[in-house]
Amino acid sequence: MLRSGVASLLRQAGTHKSGVHAAAITTSAASQSLSWFADVPTAPKDPILGITEAFLANTRPDKINLGVGAYRDDDSKPVVLNVVREAEARIAGSLFMEYLPIGGLKAFNDLSIKLAFGEDADCIKEGRVAAVQSLSGTGSCRLMAEFMARYMPGAKIWIPKPTWSNHHNIWKDAGVKEAIYKYYKPETRGLDQEGLLEDLSTAQPGDVVLLHACAHNPTGVDPTVDQWQEISKLMKEKKLFPFFDMAYQGFASGDCTRDAQAIRTFLADGHQLGCSQSYAKNMGLYGQRTGCFSLITASPQETASVESQMKAIARPMYSNPPLHGALLVKEILGDAALKQQWYDEVKGMADRIITMRALLRKNLEDLGNPLPWNHVTEQIGMFCFSGISPEQVDRLAAEHAIFMTRNGRISMAGVTTKNVDRLAQALHQVTTA
């Protein structure tokens, strides 16, 4: 698009008489054209940002925003964890603010992989984990996509249907071919395990499978322990590489070990695998862009080579990761008392959401709604895939000033003891009339 705009300018410049200074020609041509960027189209709006805009524009005092993917307390206010404030006080003024190495803060990386893979994981003790600090979960996934494009040529990325919408953009922009596997079954509001296994059985050896470690976004549907074992077995037989996006460790069930169970299952089965970690949700470090990207290798020698290439990919992309968030995480995970405080606080956030799920289901059932709502409490994590239609979502916005994505995804963080009854009443109305 930009090229055609430039060509237009040059054509106009060419109509001027010879002998005129080139700079004057260019200036004259530019003045006659709209812009160098006249042919650049407007990108479509992000659907989540559109929900927020509609919410802010609405004047009803009882409006509800169920689109935002960030934790809120029972007063619908953003939260900074007390443990984060304590960590901030400890690091304030204690260190310089110069660049981190390309791979980030090593102590942060070391603590992160222990959180993901286990304190006593063999892969860590044997030096088989290559890890770099990343720009939260999105940055980790993008590094993986670029790594695939360079060092896993021909491999497809298998992405569940549905998934977080940005997953598609990340691998597409890296030039990696995408394949889709079934995940959610609308009829049961649960996992389509049969369809999942059927689709992955058609993947080629060397393909990469994107897996949500816990609290699947947008459905809130996670495989059971037995189902994870089936998935792991199939992927091992098919020689498929697992890549876990873990954005909600601790935030899903309130237990960091339980939320990493899928990864531990794959490790026990002898997989090499990759992992994207984010501290946006579970520590509330949304704006700090703090994450870790790791790949498990076969040997320390491979680790050194792989990690060097991870850094080489990061260098032209953003050069160095941010310092502040990494220092906060290092302080929290590296201090036994702070780590326990964080465990308690992240469990408190998870428990509040679990409580809201139970209240929403109870209110809908007490209203005599004819639809089944057991999936509200059977799903887990920040999001609930409600099962309502796009048209019913539109009615919620127009008639009740309740805003969510058109696929019916409810951000349970936006549900409070003050609005859960009104939400249930509105859902009852749009699903029965």
Automatic annotation (TrEMBL):
Name of protein: aspartate transaminase
Cofactor: pyridoxal 5'-phosphate
SUPFAM superfamilies associated with the record: PLP-dependent transferases
Domain of life: Eukaryota
Pfam families linked: Aminotran_1_2
Example GO biological process: amino acid metabolic process
Keywords per UniProt: Aminotransferase, Pyridoxal phosphate, Transferase
Record-linked InterPro entries: Aminotransferase_I/II_large, Asp_trans, PyrdxlP-dep_Trfase, PyrdxlP-dep_Trfase_major, PyrdxlP-dep_Trfase_small
GO molecular function terms noted in the UniProt entry: L-aspartate:2-oxoglutarate aminotransferase activity; pyridoxal phosphate binding
Gene3D superfamilies hit by this protein: Aspartate Aminotransferase, domain 1 (3.90.1150.10), Type I PLP-dependent aspartate aminotransferase-like (Major domain) (3.40.640.10)
Catalytic activity, as annotated: L-aspartate + 2-oxoglutarate = oxaloacetate + L-glutamate
Subunit structure: Homodimer.
Ranges for domain Aminotransferase class I/classII large: 62-427
Family: Belongs to the class-I pyridoxal-phosphate-dependent aminotransferase family.
EC number(s) given by UniProt: 2.6.1.1
Gene Ontology terms: cellular component: mitochondrion
